[in-house]
Amino acid sequence: MHTALSTLSLACLTCLSFAVQAQQTSSPSRITQVTLYPGSATVERTLQLPAGAHQAVLGCLPAGLDTQALQISAPPGVAVGEIAVRQLPRAQVAGCASPQEARVRALEDQIAALQAEAQGLEQASGWLTRYTQPTGAAQIAATTDALRRSGQSVALRQHQLAREQQALEAQLKPLQAEQQRTARNALVSQVQITLSAPQGGALQLRYQVRGPGWQPGYRATLDTNSQQVKLERTALVAQSSGEDWSDVPLTLSTGQPTAQTVAPLPRPWRIAQAQPEPPRPAPAPMARAGKSMVMAEMAVADAPAEPSFDASVFEGSHATLFVLPQRISLPSHGEQLTLSLGTQQLDSRMVVRTVPARDLGAYLIASFTLPEGVWPDGAVTLYRDSAYVGQGRLQAADVAKNGLGFGRDERVQVQALPASQQQGSSGLLGSRQQREVRTAWEVRNQHRQPITLQLLDAAPVAEQQDIRVQSHYQPQPTSTSWNEQPGSVLWELPLAPGSSTRISAEHQISWPGDMQLRERR
After folding, report:
1. Domain 412-512 has CATH 1.10.8
2. What is the mean pLDDT of residues 80-100?
3. Which of 4, 28, 110, 459 has a CA between 20 and 30 Å from the CA of residue 514?
4. What is the pTM assigned to this prediction?
């Protein structure tokens, strides 16, 4: 049985706990599932109801909880009645300590233990100093060596304690800052459910919280011998919901429950005569902010900082779920965790691509087809033959068409040959202007194996009928509209080991003599 709560407004923090009031008994709950979306999460908690329970109190709800999305699932034979939600100060609710409090106290105890040991060593060092005062030549000779060794041990341990204390204090400072930040919003929410459970059973609560999220990422390794790409999917997850996730089952989803659910309708397109703009009045002097404005500014300033996750890259009509085989522990203070979502071994087509008009470098490109499913755009870490070559971006719509770059190929040399340009007039009384542009390049393959060369260049495209363009190429290009872009010229040809090829382009442009050309490149 599912019961959706009515719209309620609450601001609450930290972890969720259940308390069941039936014959003065209570029982804790546990997280049984977390589904993580870009920018939000659905958390499911389960509580075992004792037989005869009449009320369940859900306390310490996290700050980002969306009351409109609350769901309660009760087992057969359990009836759910009235549901009430209220806000309470954290200090008034038992068991609602900050998730950072236990870690802060543990670190403080460790620092205190180190300080106590350091004080003991300081006292021992003073005793050793007093004991070494001259009391007789025979006594000093007998004990000098032992005292020296003891003094060295004490000094060394004091140095170690100082280092350990510095490391613990470095861990403590960010936790204390997070604890102070969450203390400013020291309210928690409590959900009270009236029910009837004669036989008991498992009660489940599902709630949405904003702030947690995940970003897709990839690792791509190209094997140039087999021309295969090993593509690993990864996910960067983080959360600051206010409750720690400890040893929980985690599912990642590309869905967007926080996004709009319908596209906007078109606006009417109306055309009328433009009216002159009325003069704008001078800006009025800014009035002094009243109490309500000050309180609003304080509320914005005190809002907890949430991890930033760009959900715009997760587009598609259906969501893809990634159910992790292992349980995950993720604290609430924004720590980032990288997870592996699986590896694919894909056949690819390798080419060496150059765009010499813009860059004389040659780059290794691998084109492959992604398996079925949703592949959100994401950063990709690139390796070539196990060597790191840099960072890129994987876009599913672009990989099969343009490929994925795996760095510069230093064994392919590209040289720009001297270019020429001539301009003059033609026709009766110079009625038309004319310009000729010649460019050429030489490409040499220094590999011990053949390569497939792609050379790209831009040709002029006339946007008006009285501008005429004639182009001549040597050799003839594979396409003059690469990727369906007129004027994007592609040469694709094999290049044997140790050989070179020359590619040239000549463009003749003519236009009316009284026209001023505008060129965009």
Report:
1. no
2. 73
3. 459
4. 0.65
